[in-house]
Design a protein that fits this description.
By secondary structure, the protein is α/β, with parallel strands linked by helices. Helices cover 29% and strands 21% of the residues. Strand 15 and strand 16 form a beta hairpin.
């Protein structure tokens, strides 16, 4: 790929996917003093915002419910500072990048700051980022996405009032996408029903089957692909599965063999009629790993389920009473409760075709991670990835947009977001 060979070496280093990287990729530190191309071009803006995004994604699982944010500071066609928001409550990306300038004896006066999100204006766990940029004498700020939160937006106007050139750039799609989970929570909360970011994950054969007609699915994907899923589990707030998967596979749904477990995700079973077996792995380990069962609201107080509820609660299981939909619990209400009760920003779906189909039917899936294995069943009775929708026309299909395709041994990992 000629365009890749022509890219500056520090960008190649920052973007290379290494063994152990999370599914969406980790950034390798850039060489800060590397010369770069003409800083007056949109191509340069894109390169810097792309780099800021790759820095920010390192903190996935550490900063939520805050957004992932990265910052690159340049001066005289050189990078003089790098930073990203590393932990919830810690320094924001702009202050981290300015501190990096100081560590390297570089002055940010007259520099350009590239930030993935509009600098904030409010005092929370940290003071306003706009104050830091103004005090440092930064001359220009380029950001990829306006701040969506009422309490922190308006950084653009504050910086301009201080004489700083400010631009909102659409040059980097990566930088724009970075804050989408956080922005969705902010937007849906303002609309009256706060919702988390939903990531559907499944492994399938070439012909789109996730299990044989008898339900056998272990293992369709390779060990390497499964390791990447475990790393993803270690960065999300909750993992949602259905009763069918519990009965068929008796999963643990924990992050195993992961070097850094950034989060211990809550395991949630969608179980309308409260039929989860007391001896399943999820219930048996509920005192070790947070576990919830979402059931119909009526059954959460009904006398007929009193003994079952007492046994589940004694095992450490939380019961989530959820409003009923047409045939099962209302998945939108369930996701809303996970966002509001448990402050969940990212939820991973590891389920069978029924629950997955219900989520797609309700248009609740934001992202999909699909692992395609080099095998073919060619059995009409084998289980598809999702079902339950009635789609007489292709115009009624749920459109997805391919973001990345990556070879994992003989498997292929495909990353999609809603179209």
């Amino acid at each position: 790929m000629p365009e890749r060979r022509n890219r500056p070496s520090f960008l190649l280093n920052a973007s290379r996917d290494r063994k152990g990287a999370v599914p969406w990729g980790l950034a390798r530190p850039a060489r800060v003093s590397s010369p770069v191309s003409d800083p007056s071009t949109p191509k340069f803006d894109r390169a810097m915002l792309d780099l800021a995004a790759r820095l920010a994604v390192r903190a996935g699982g550490y900063v939520e419910p805050n957004p992932l944010v990265g910052c690159v500071i340049t001066k005289d066609a050189r990078i003089i500072g790098l930073g990203h928001h590393k932990r919830f409550g810690g320094l924001h990306a702009e202050r981290e990048a300015l501190a990096d300038c100081a560590r390297r004896n570089g002055s940010p006066h007259g520099s350009t700051a590239y930030v993935t999100l509009e600098p904030c204006t409010h005092t929370g766990k940290q003071p306003p980022c706009t104050d830091a940029l103004i005090e440092a004498g930064v001359a220009r700020v380029v950001f990829a996405r306006p701040d969506a939160a009422d309490q922190s937006r308006g950084g653009c106007e504050v910086l301009r009032a201080a004489g700083i050139r400010v631009e909102c750039s659409d040059a980097s799609e990566s930088a724009w996408r970075l804050a989408e989970p956080w922005a969705k929570r902010v937007r849906t909360k303002a609309e009256g029903l706060e919702l988390p970011w939903v990531i559907a994950k499944w492994a399938q054969t070439i012909d789109g089957r996730i299990a044989t007609r008898t339900g056998e699915s272990q293992w369709i994907s390779s060990e390497h692909s499964r390791r990447r899923v475990h790393r993803l589990r270690a960065r999300v707030d909750a993992i949602l599965t259905g009763l069918g998967t519990v009965l068929a596979d008796d999963p643990m749904l924990t992050a195993r063999g992961v070097r850094r477990t950034r989060r211990t995700p809550r395991r949630v079973i969608a179980d309308t009629h409260l039929e989860t077996p007391l001896d399943c792995a999820l219930v048996r380990t509920a005192r070790e790993v947070p576990t919830s069962i979402a059931c119909a609201k009526e059954l959460a107080t009904a006398a007929i389920t009193a003994d079952k509820r007492r046994a589940l609660e004694a095992a450490g299981v939380e019961l989530l009473p959820v409003a009923m939909g047409a045939r099962s619990i209302d998945l939108r209400d369930l996701l809303h409760q996970l966002a509001t009760r448990h402050d969940a920003t990212n939820i991973l779906i590891e389920s069978g075709p029924g629950l997955l189909g219900g989520l797609f039917e309700a248009d609740l899936v934001d992202e999909a991670m699909v692992y395609i294995a080099p095998m073919l069943l060619a059995d009409a009775s084998a289980k598809a990835a999702a079902h339950g929708r009635v789609v007489p026309s292709l115009t009624q299909a749920r459109p997805l947009r391919l973001l990345r395709a990556k070879r994992i041994g003989d498997d292929v990992e495909l990353a999609y977001r809603r179209g």
